[in-house]
Design goal:
Number of helices: 3
Shape: elongated
Strand content: 5-15%
Distance between the termini: 33 Å
Number of strands: 2
């Protein structure tokens, strides 16, 4: 299984319609095995494709908003680290 399988768009044809699907189970496996976090857009799409009750949906939305904030914060930290590394010289082997 490829590390980014859940990131790919799978197209299923049913009754002549295309349906795009992100697999939350594969994303969970990748998180457990490789510590890869799904992009917030893909996570939101997975949430939207799950049947939830009103209260469960509200709680999940609250958790998602927290995820979105922290994901953005970590992207900023990661970008700063990468910019510093990119500006430096590589070691010779």
């Amino acid at each position: 299984m490829s590390i980014t399988e859940y990131n790919t768009v799978e197209v299923f044809f049913r009754w002549g319609e295309a349906m795009y699907h992100y697999d939350a189970k594969i994303a969970l496996e990748e998180l457990q095995e490789e510590a890869l976090l799904p992009h917030p857009v893909k996570l939101r799409d997975m949430i939207l494709r799950t049947k939830l009750g009103p209260q469960e949906a509200q709680l999940l939305n609250h958790d998602f908003q927290d995820y979105l904030t922290r994901f953005g914060d970590l992207q900023k930290v990661g970008r700063g680290i990468l910019e510093k590394i990119a500006a430096g010289q590589r070691k010779t082997s």
